[in-house]
Design brief:
Length: 140
Amino acid sequence: MSEVQDAQAALVEEFQFFDDWMDRYQYIIDLGRRLPAFPEIAKVDRNKIKGCQSQVWFVAEMINGRLHFQAISDAAIVSGLIAVLLRIYTGREPQDIVDSSTDFVAALGLAQHLSPTRSNGLAAMLEAIHAHAAEAVTEY
């Protein structure tokens, strides 16, 4: 199993501890509250994720052969979704990200429990992560 697959499996297992979706939502929101500070200078249009209902700023940086992501949103639940994605993808090798699936979204039940606009935003963030990884694979 790859590092990304391991992180996805661990997250799916972790979410099984919650009895209902209200507890899962609260957990996601709590994760978002613990996001590291995002630099104000990076809150520019070129770093915005298109397709999200709320504002999402997202940057990627290659460090020692691994992609590191930073992101923030002005919405609590979206910040939590960002925290979930960062936990899975940041610090991973680009090829590992490119080769990974996004099946964990369905396994977590996010697809059926998020509003359509939040689901679109999640898909846009996943697309951005995979696009950065694909670009890094070709550049490095």
